[in-house]
Amino acid sequence: MAEIQIAGGSTQRVLVTGAAGFLGSHLTERLLEMGHHVTGVDSLITGARENVSHIEGHPRFKLVTADLARGLPQAVRDETFDRIWHLASPASPVGYVKQQVITLKVNAIATIDLLELAEKCGARIFVASTSECYGDPLEHPQKETYWGNVNPVGMRSMYDESKRFMEAAAMVYHRERSVDTRIVRIFNTYGPRLALDDGRVVVAFIKQALKGEPMTVQGDGSQTRSLCYVDDEIRGFLLLMESPAYHMPVNIGNPDEVSVLELAHEIRELCGSQSEIRHTVLPPDDPRQRCPDITLAKALLGWEPTILRREGLLRTIEYYRKKLGI
Ligand code: UDP
């Protein structure tokens, strides 16, 4: 991954919530490589110790196991940070429907707790919002100025609405209390360390294709997603965190849009699999289309994704092939 230049280049005391999760573990790894001191917090509900096992014991890394939905742990409240990254949350439709109250609380209450902590420490805080804020979008591709089309009481609302609240909270603490905030809207991201039972489309299809099981395309598969490889996403995060003050949401995602059916065929081919493609029921409120407009990220951060879908999928398939021993 390309080196990220940090203004001043000084060592930071960093808090990463969700450090044992998919994005959190990749981010933590990068922050350690950059020489920072990282305190990670994770409930291990959707994250996994295995994701950070290779850095446990690192002299600049410490993992606190705690559920932020129950409040900030004392070990975190006692520390001072320069940077706070709030990434903790179930993030797959399967995951957040299983953990509805926790999803609400970790994105709403824990966000407030962390904004208060940022104010107390004088830390800059980055909150992980989502393309789900656009709901089932009527504008395509989605620009940050689009307000979205979200069902406030639907099956995804614990996630969509708590992330929208997270954004509102970050803006309020910035405007009223001058907290130095950054908001990212993450579009579908994939790569190694997504949990095998996570349910998100890339890992579900890879697992099914490698095992020769039916590949479950929900609905007719004409719905679209735009997939970003994890290394590109994390590079965007780091640039946004260290960007000159910009407090409004920024889309970080890959505009390379693909239908779910096309993706199933592509993954099957890349895995060299004979799996049958089986159509199943489309879950309620599944967005019809999703694609980021990244004009702002390009102008503000000089960021754009560099890893082509085929390359990213091949790297990801390789990881799961080893993990599954196939
Ligand atoms: N999907 C699918 N089969 C699966 C898992 C997901 O067809 O086994 C579809 C899902 O209906 C959605 C898209 O893939 O249209 C992306 O789903 P995912 O759970 O990855 O995340 P979302 O973008 O919906 O939050």
List the topology elements:
Elements: E1 13-17, H1 22-33, E2 37-42, E3 61-65, H2 74-77, E4 83-86, H3 93-98, H4 100-107, H5 109-121, E5 124-130, H6 157-177, E6 180-186, E7 189-190, H7 201-211, E8 215-218, E9 224-226, E10 228-229, H8 230-241, E11 249-252, E12 257-259, H9 260-271, E13 277-280, H10 295-301, H11 309-324
Parallel strand pairs: 1-2, 1-4, 2-3, 4-5, 5-6, 6-11, 7-10, 8-13
Antiparallel strand pairs: 9-12
Helix pairs in contact: 1-8, 4-6, 5-6, 7-9, 7-11, 9-11
This protein binds uridine-5'-diphosphate.
Uridine-5'-diphosphate binds at residues 92-93, 188, 199-201, 204, 216-218, 223, 225, 260, 282-283, 286.
Description:
The structure is a single chain. This protein is α/β, with parallel strands linked by helices and 326 residues long. The protein has a domain at 13-190 and 228-255 and 291-306: Rossmann fold. Helices cover 37% and strands 17% of the residues. The protein has helices at 22-33, 74-77, 93-98, 100-107, 109-121, 157-177, 201-211, 230-241, 260-271, 295-301, 309-324; strands spanning 13-17, 37-42, 61-65, 83-86, 124-130, 180-186, 189-190, 215-218, 224-226, 228-229, 249-252, 257-259, 277-280. The strands form 4 sheets. It has a 7-stranded parallel sheet, sandwiched between helices. The chain has a two-stranded parallel ribbon with strand order 7-10. Strands 8-13 form a two-stranded parallel ribbon. Strand 5, helix 6 and strand 6 form a beta-alpha-beta unit. Helix 1 packs across helix 8. The protein is globular, with a radius of gyration of 19 Å. The structure holds uridine-5'-diphosphate. The site of uridine-5'-diphosphate (UDP) has 16 residues, from helix 7 and strand 8.
